[in-house]
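@channel sequence for tomorrow's demo:
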Amino acid sequence: MPTILFATTHRRREIWVGLPTVKAILANKVAPGLLDRYLAKYGYTSQLSVERKNANAASNLFEAVPVSWGAHGRFDAQARPRSWEMWTSRHRDALAAGALALLALGGSWIASHSAAMGRQMVKRRGR
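structure tokens (generated this afternoon):
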């Protein structure tokens, strides 16, 4: 299911897609002022390119272009067909259940292991 379709059919307030999104959101939670200063200094210039634009390239500034390009452009080579962040967002309930199950198993193992160690200590003291 494409991400946009998922976002429109599921009642979520926000969906994080892509590692840059996760890094930006988490950095903003940890040090928002620092991130604001960084973006104020580098945000605009980092979006500029030294590549020359094709003089014959269609532009939609004043009128629609004759061909619908969709969401494609010069960064298609860097795009990925899948996102781990989106996968974990779609399956968050199952992942949370799995994490709780692992926590419960770990807790029971620790409890049984510490009980067994306690019995061994009692046996050693009784000698």
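heads up for whoever presents: The chain has a mean pLDDT of 82.
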